[in-house]
Write a structure and sequence with these properties.
The chain is of the alpha/beta class and about 400 residues long. Helices cover about 35% and strands about 20% of the residues. The protein has 3 domains: about 5-125 and about 215-310, Rossmann fold, CATH 3.40.50.300; about 140-215, Helicase, Ruva Protein, domain 3 (Orthogonal Bundle); about 315-390, Beta-grasp domain (Ubiquitin-like (UB roll), Roll). Helix 6 (about 180-185) packs across helix 7 (about 200-215).
Amino acid sequence: MIILALAGKPNAGKSTFFKAATMSDVEIAEYPFTTIEPNRGVAYVRTECPCIEMNTRCGNSHCQNGKRYIPIELIDVAGLVPGAHQGRGLGNKFLDDLMNADAIINIIDFSGRTNEEGEIVENGKYDPLHESEFIREEIDLWLAGVIKRNWFSVERLARGPNFNMEKSIASVLSGLGIKSRDILACLRKMEYPPMPSEWEDSDYERLACLLREISKPSMVVANKIDVVAKENIERLENMEEEISVVTSQYELILRKGNEKGIIRYDPGDDTFDVIKELTEEQEDGLNKIEKVMKEYGGTGIQNSLNRAVYEMMKMITVFPVENETHWADGKGNKLPDAYLMSKGSTPRDLAYEVHTDIGDGYLYAINARSNRRISEGYELKEGDVIKIVSTAK
């Protein structure tokens, strides 16, 4: 399962985002380091279910009127403060937890009401755009420190007769959860000294930056847009990087209202339906939420998760079936499974994703839409419905 980590300074709203996305019972409070041990829960990305092409819906529990929700794991880790790479706050623990994730959602408090330490400031005068910068820097400096501390292993290998710098570095850093091919790709992008003894701090930091970019892609999410200072919103237009805007608090209210049967709301929609008589207080609150949703096209939570997985990580959704005519499994369940796959994946890759034995016994695949056999080199596309034919049962 894909793992996304929520990063950010204390009091940026990470735990509220996490609770809204997973409906897990976590502590939320306006003071730094509410989260100490990482919270883990199941969130979902949303895509179009192929059942909308059928006369009836598939009936899958993860499908809501043709909106298919695919589970991912979400981690809410302790807040990061300047100097975390040197152990300030809960820095080292925070950064260790981040390395277990496939990608990072960097949540910033866009209201400007809290400083880089997560402390509340008066009149929202803190510049929230500094947050995205210092968090990337902290991750880079921490990773550079890890590389430097383990450099003795590279130096030891350099004394051998068949020394290869790239392979030696890859073998030393593989314990960080970074793939060897990513390490090699980063090394080939930089000019580095030929011998370990000649490396300087700038070389470690350059490699760390490249490793973060390729192995831990990240996106910035501007939280608390329901209370954001107007001048901060206007500054988004001048940002070089695209930022998702969200209101975690409003998403949490909507999900709770849906859970209690007060409203009908599907995560990711830009509106909701009231299905129960409201109190005056509830009506006022929902009117405020509706106004923000109209302005921004929703609360932004689902959009952020989708962008992280489908755009940033470049994933697609594929639906394997046993019966290509009815798009069902052996028990008649229509479109029972949905797999997140990397763009460029092939039918054989899908077979291995379903089960190792099916991959080992792979013979060919059928595109259920056209009912035609597809080549082994066929690149799977978003929403493909595929039957795998294998010697394995």
